[in-house]
Amino acid sequence: MNNLVVIPARGGSKGIPGKNIKIFNGKPLILHAVDAAKKIFNDNEIIVSTDDIKIKKVVEDSGLIVPFLRPSYLATDTSGTYEVLLHAVDYFEKAYGKIETLVLLQPTSPFRNSKHIREALELYNSYNNIDMVVSVSETKSNPYYVLFEENKEGFLNHSKKGNFIRRQDCPKVWEYNGAIYIINIKSLKKSNLSSFKRVVKYVMDEKSSLDLDSQMDMLFAEYLLKLENDI
Length: 231
Known about the structure:
- The chain has 6 helices and 10 strands; from the N terminus they run βββαβααβαββββαβα.
- It is of the alpha/beta class.
- The strands form 3 sheets. A 6-stranded mixed beta sheet has the order 4-1-5-9-6-10, sandwiched between helices.
- The N and C termini lie far apart (42 Å).
């Protein structure tokens, strides 16, 4: 096997308590990520990394085995995704041998689907020797136009210099939407994702990019579902 899918799901959540198993569009939130992955990968290529027995049960009730509970030192508010990924890779490689590619799917992106994942994989495979393909959306907060930094005198200056009259004339700026990361295992073992230099974007639309991080996000996502159902 050349691929490993990791879906990280810590039990503690401050923005939306219990969000990973909160019902969204008829099923627990985390199962949207699990089901999208299962349409592309074999079950034994998918690891849900969690410290929470309730999340483990929900996932296993859906038919996917959760092979371990994440150790406590990887389940705190300060635990980093990087360490969680290395832990999952180490477990998987001891069980199945070396892998080449890691697919990270956050459980808080319910509008990301298997088509998006497949397209991101195809994009990754079209390059040689890159660190990562990451899903992005175009940000409305353009640093040439509406983002400012405070200088030493306390006055605001544009974050990036440019002589632009209209926002449409500014260079496009992208933000990671958290939905999909296709990662070169060799690169991952050398450094954190934030240190990668050879990163290629996979563009997703605004709705598909929605990340549920707060109660407001959840309400907005449920509103979008209602609009779809009413059409």
